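RNase H type-1 domain-containing protein: structure tokens wanted.
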Amino acid sequence: MGSRFHDALPSPANVLAHEDGGCALRIVCPYLLLLIYRISTVAERFYWRHQSKFRRVYNGAFEPFVLYGHGAWGPRLGVLAKIRNTLNIIQRRPLVKLTNAYKTTSTAALQVLAGTLPLDLRAREVYDKFRLTTAKQNIVCNGITLRWNSFEGRQNIFDKHPVNWVSIPYGKEDPTQEDIEIYTDGSKLDNQTGTAMVVYYHGTLIHHEIHRLPDYATVYQAELMGIKMALQYVEKSANWHKFHIFTDSLSSLQALANTHCSIPSLWEIKDIYDRIIKNKWLRLHWIKAHVGNIGNEAAEATSS
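Answer:
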């Protein structure tokens, strides 16, 4: 954008690590206001006709600078009210620019109009995520204990050369009751999560599998697990060489078609798919749910 952070500006982390939280933020405040002014000046010159661009400036420049080093000063968020109040005061000026509201508008109203979290809650979110994923500590959120070893991290997509990235195509064709047709479904009922897959050969049920997931697992994870189970069945099958897999989870299929997805479980599914298509014919399909399809209804009933 034509502007950069001055090297002499102290980051909030460097100050908060050595001084009282409230006083430290008051020291950082003038530098943050200068940063806001410089970025806003440049952004207004180039983006004044595109108000939505200011949100990108806010998310990409302001918040990261304010929250930098949260691992050092994050523990004081729950202790010192001064930090929480000062963070929201700092947030006020960029929100006025973001919303074009009157300067007399309250900070709480500005946060609602801008659709952004209060900065103290955003800081708490970033710090808790740091504890969970980087420091590998369990955290308690609203009375619920989140365990770091149950958290699904991110896969570095550049562990593989881009030439070897896999995109799994899918279609929207209806079942024909020919060859092997596999239906998968995941569900969450009474805080219990499960997934299932059923196998039909020319319209006749010949096999089914059920898998119970941890209670904290989501329906999306259950849907992916069902697809993975179907692929493992196809990989192990020695009697047939042509397979169709049907699922009503469009989001899962879209994620599998995306080459830049960094979720480890998706990479595992793609690795299985890549091995299968070297020797067998396989096609994934999306079908509508609750339209009377026998295979889909059977998979849903089994997973529940």
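The longest helix spans residues 21-47. Residues 22-150 form one domain.

Cheers.
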